[in-house]
Amino acid sequence: MDNTQNQSIKAPELRVEQWIDSHGSKLENPIKLSEYEGKYKVIYCFQHWCPGCHSVGLPSLKKLVDAFEDSDKIAFLAVQTVFEGAHANTYDKILETQKKYELEIPFGHDPGKGRSTIMEDYHTGGTPWFIFIDQENNVVFADFHINVDGTIKYLKEVTK
Fold it and tell me: What is the pLDDT of residue 112?
C-alpha cells in the first residue's frame, strides 16, 4: 500500500447526513463510525462526474470489497464528497453508482454546506480518495492512490 500521506490522527466522527444501505434503500439515521467499533474502516470518497473515480477509484474499491466479502473485521463505506458540480453530483447519483459497480456497501451523499464535511474533517484533497481507519480509530492512510493488490495484502495482515 502506498502510504504517502500517513496521518496519525484520531478519526473524527462522520457528519454525513444522507445514506443508502448496502441494497440501495434510504437510511433514516446517518451512519456513524462508532457503529464499526473494533473494525478496520475504509472510506472511499468520490464524485459521480469524476473520470478518475470511474476509471481507477471505483474499480479499485470493487476489488477491495470483493476480496473481503466474507470478513466481519473490515467495514467499507463510499461517500460522494461534493466540493464542486453540486448540480451533477446529486443524491440520486449514489444509487446509480452503487448499482453500476455492484457494490453492496453503504453509500453516503455529503454536500456539506457547499463543501463536503469529510473533506473538511479529514483534510482530503479531492476525488478519488481513500481513507483507512484502524481498529483504534486512528487514520492510518489518506490519499488519492492505492496499490490495490498491496492494500489487500496489508488489510489481510492487519485484520487477521
Answer: 85
Sign, CA dihedral 69-70-74-75, equals positive
- Strands 129-133 and 40-46, sheet pairing: antiparallel
Cβ atoms of residues 30 and 14 within 8 Å:
yes
Residue 6 has pLDDT above 80, yes or no: no
**pLDDT(2) > 90:** no
Q: Return d(Cα 114, Cα 17) in angstroms, integer.
A: 14
Nearest in space to 11 (alpha carbons), one of 139, 116, 134, 140: 139
pLDDT tens track for 15-29: 999 999 999 999 999
Query: pLDDT tens-digit profile of 121-144?
Result: 999 989 999 999 999 999 999 999
β-sheet bridge partners, residue 132: 42, 141
Distance separating alpha carbons of residues 130 and 127, to the nearest angstrom: 9
Q: The cell 480509530 sits on which residue?
A: 137
Nearby residues of 94 by Cβ (< 8 Å), 6 or more positions away: 20, 48, 78, 80, 107, 108, 109
